[in-house]
Amino acid sequence: MTAAAPAIRLVGVSKQYGSQTALRESDLEIAEGEFFCLLGPSGCGKTTTLNLIGGFVNASTGEIYIRDQRVDRLPPYRRSVNTVFQSYALFPHMNVRANVGFGLKMARVPAAESRSRVDDALRLVGLDEFGDRLPGLLSGGQQQRVAVARALVNRPAVLLLDEPLGALDLKLRQRLQLELAQIHRDVGTTFVYVTHDQEEAMSMATRIAVMSNGRIQQVGTPSEIYYKPRSRFVADFIGESNFLEVEARSGEAGVARLADGRAVPCSMNGSHASGRATLMVRPESIHVGDPHDAPEASLRGRVVQTSFLGSQTRIAVSCDAVDAPITAAEFGRDRSIARQLTPEREVALWWDKDDAVILPDESMTDEEE
Questions:
Q1: pTM for this one?
Q2: Pairing mode, if any, of strands 158-162 and 190-195?
Q3: What are the residues whose beta carbons fall under 8 Å from the beta carbon of 35, sequence distance 6 or more?
Q4: Cα-Cα end-to-end distance for the chain
Q5: pLDDT in tens, 54-66
Q6: Which pLDDT belongs to residue 333?
Q7: Nearest 5 degrees, angle CA 182-CA 186-CA 187?
Q8: Fewer CB within 10 Å, N side or C side of the chain?
Q9: Burial (CB count within 10 angstroms: exposed 0-12, middle 13-18, buried 19+), residue 297
Q10: Rg from Cα positions in the chain
Q11: CA gap 358, 273 in Å, rounded
């Protein structure tokens, strides 16, 4: 049985603006029906990648395919894509129905079919009772949903979304994240979503490409990106991490050595090189307990600070052979933890082998170098 062709495929694609490299030569495949996020800080190349797929800029090198059709030589209007921008770009003098149906009118879709498709699109975004209103009478969230309906009514193979929720307040943005994810499930169209907000990407995406300095650092599911980062940049950009400088030794699988020679458990994360490396472990993966009850492969230290933050208690612990305090996070409603772990109390820290990953020294990004 032949595997389904990807919705989008980039082969050796790059973009150069004079002496500035916006996107380094990259290969990328996005499966049919995915909610795919391009994630990274400003200037990392994520919007450039989106614009290359949409045809708003031309690639310096490489080939771009949409459903196995090469499109990098085609203008935007001949590609089966539609784009939702942060600015919405609605026509202020047209009502909602006319805005949503504008593309169908330009494509000379018969009136009866156009009305039916506009009705379906408005129903999909929950605005079927707002068709006669002007955009200026709608909230920011409602205007954004009109923009999504207008893009989807044309039934594109791919919907491109360029930070579409960036102008909204936090609570509305969180609500629309849920709505966009639900719309994606309902229509099954391939979504490619650009954002610098890691929580936004983690909450909506089926897969994420983390980008930095025009390079795709890692592609994976939210869980893979979070628990198995392949570079220090990814580990630092997604969530919170503890970084410990260690030495990985050949023949010592499953452990790394701190500066004083003490062994701590870890996963090699696909790297088997010996030498200096960085061990990454998430705060919620660290257990805090009495030194007398701790396993042999644990660190001893003293509590620096304990903070109760509602859903979690955060404990900072200073340990020998580790430069910076290690942060642990205990989740739950037991407030007694905060009272027990007072400053200067001696504790032990430990974690499971699979919860700590080795990041090779050469995984440092250009930004850090």
A1: 0.88
A2: parallel
A3: 181, 184, 191, 193, 204, 205, 206
A4: 46
A5: 999 999 999 999 9
A6: 58
A7: 120
A8: N
A9: middle
A10: 25
A11: 10
